[in-house]
Design goal:
Layout lengths: L11 E7 L6 H11 L4 E5 L10 H10 L6 E5 L5 H18 L6 E7 L6 H15 L8 H19 L15 E4 L7 H16 L10 H12 L27 E6 L2 H12 L3 H12 L8 E6 L6 H13 L1 H10 L12 E17 L3 E8 L7 E2 L17 E6 L8 H10 L9 E4 L6 E8 L1
Parallel strand pairs: 1-3, 1-4, 2-3, 4-5
Antiparallel strand pairs: 6-7, 6-13, 8-9, 8-10, 8-12, 8-13, 9-11
The structure holds 2'-deoxyguanosine-5'-diphosphate.
The site of 2'-deoxyguanosine-5'-diphosphate (DGI) has 15 residues, from helix 1, helix 4 and helix 6.
């Protein structure tokens, strides 16, 4: 079982602010990432210009998935409960697309705008934003005019739902940092409080607090920041395309390297049965055998069941880089999934042939996978890949579809019947194959 409360060196952190415009979220976030440039990241909602709003969390998780990354600040105002709830829902839904399913994530909240200081916040943030001028992705003073900018900011203040730690979604944070709001260099004071509280709660994330000099320097640098993205508020961004959906493999297989040798062993296996022997040669002569002999490790359909789902996600995580690369190479024409291409990975699997199962629809071979209880795949170093197992109850190779209308999944039915001893059926022939030879296959992603 996974202990989600445990915090150790593998734990990763996300920070969700609760704020209104101009309270210093970006300045504070930049200061923090200036202090920990390798291990802390920052994704700004203002840099996300497409229609898909969940890009905010997708980009954050993508960054957090990097090995060295420990903490990512998800920079958005989240001034309403609905927005905070949405972040937790997105996280729940998308986490496993980017990180291993057992990665423990802690969510830290930072409340920037105390409710009892709201009128002071109004005065100061309006002054600041006017002074900021055009240095923002969407709120550009020259274009919108002072009145409009004040209108946008007032809207946020009017709709603001401050932190309510006793109820959902605000009770879902693992740690909440409640900042005060002061006139002078409030972001510098904020950073110092954040550093102290994180150090106290999660020393593993921050074993030491940086010196005041370092903090001052990081703060000064962040005040000089100018955004590079331009965002048009209101109607969405016509020039920006919706991010295409990620194409994932339909099934993951092990493709046997030795096709002919497998044919030879089947031929030997049926040698004593004149009828089968003749039929087999006939099928072979008519080019009716499968072009590639593969063992299916997992199919997207098997990922619908609970146990299968976890394992399928583990596979997707393991081959995240290859899947991303495939998507990058197929950016232009990924409207449908009609490519039917397969991509080799560097993982391998060793197996032996066990039984030939033959009925009037299909010929399949039950195979025995090498490995142990932790897994069956072998990586480039020859080590067993932890946790990856075959999702099919009975691993097998489909050799031939005698009935050309039969679906490959029927092999599962036949092999499971044979393996459980239920195949008393006249029509099902089961023949022991020579298991002297160990075969090797390459793990392939089939899109
Ligand atoms: O909209 P936010 O991300 O919450 O706010 P921001 O970090 O963009 O800050 C708004 C403006 O205020 C920006 O021009 C930087 C400035 N600012 C932020 N924190 C401080 C600050 N200016 C001073 N003098 N002192 C601060 O602590």
């Amino acid at each position: 079982a996974i202990d989600y409360d445990k915090v150790d060196e593998h734990t990763k952190f996300l920070i969700f602010p609760i704020s209104v415009i101009g309270c210093g979220k970006t300045t504070t976030s930049q200061t923090l990432t200036n202090l920990f440039p390798e291990t802390w990241g920052h994704i700004q909602n203002d840099d996300i210009t497409g229609k898909d709003k969940s890009q905010l969390i997708k980009k954050s998780l993508e960054l957090l998935a990097k090995q060295e990354m420990k903490c990512v600040i998800v920079d958005r105002n989240n001034h309403q409960f609905r927005e905070r709830k949405q972040l937790f829902e997105w996280l729940d839904e998308l986490k496993e697309d980017y990180l291993a399913y057992d990665t423990n994530i802690k969510v830290i909240g930072i409340s920037f705008a105390p409710y009892d200081k709201l009128s002071k916040i109004r005065d100061i943030t309006m002054q600041r934003v006017i002074k900021r001028g055009n240095n923002h992705q969407s709120i550009k003073l020259d274009e919108l005019g002072e009145k409009k900018v004040i209108g946008i900011m007032s809207g946020f203040l009017k709709r603001y739902q401050p932190l309510n730690i006793d109820k959902s979604p605000d009770n879902m944070f693992d740690l909440m940092i409640e900042l005060d709001f002061n006139e002078i260099d409030s972001s510098l004071t904020n950073v110092k409080q954040i550093l102290n509280e994180i150090h106290r709660a999660y020393p593993i994330l921050m074993p030491e607090i940086p010196t005041d000099d370092k903090i001052d320097e990081a703060f000064r640098k962040s005040l000089e920041y100018k955004p590079t993205v331009r965002k048009i508020v209101g109607k969405g961004n016509g020039n920006q395309q919706k991010t295409p959906k990620l194409i994932r493999p339909v099934y993951i297989s092990v493709n046997a390297r030795e096709h002919d040798e497998i044919i030879n062993l089947v031929r030997q296996g049926v040698a004593n049965n004149k009828d089968l022997s003749q039929k087999f040669e006939g099928l072979l002569a008519n080019d009716r055998l499968q072009k590639d002999f593969h063992i299916t490790l997992g199919h997207v359909m098997s990922s619908r069941e609970k146990e299968g789902k976890k394992l399928w996600k583990l596979y997707l995580t393991r081959y995240h880089d290859q899947i991303t690369e495939y998507n990058n190479n197929h950016k232009e024409n990924n409207s449908g999934n009609n490519q039917n291409t397969s991509v080799n990975t560097t993982d391998k699997l060793k197996f032996k042939l066990s039984k030939l199962c033959w009925d009037d629809k299909i010929i399949a071979i039950v195979v025995e996978l090498s490995g142990n209880e932790t897994g069956c795949l072998i990586d480039v170093n020859g080590d067993i890949v932890n946790g990856l197992k075959c999702l099919n109850k009975v691993p097998h190779i489909t050799v031939c579809k005698i009935d050309s209308n039969v679906k490959a999944v029927y092999s599962n039915v036949l092999c499971e019947k044979v393996q459980s001893g239920e195949a008393q059926d006249e029509n099902v022939k089961v023949l022991k194959l020579s298991d002297a030879k160990e075969f090797v296959g390459d793990v392939c992603l089939n899109f």
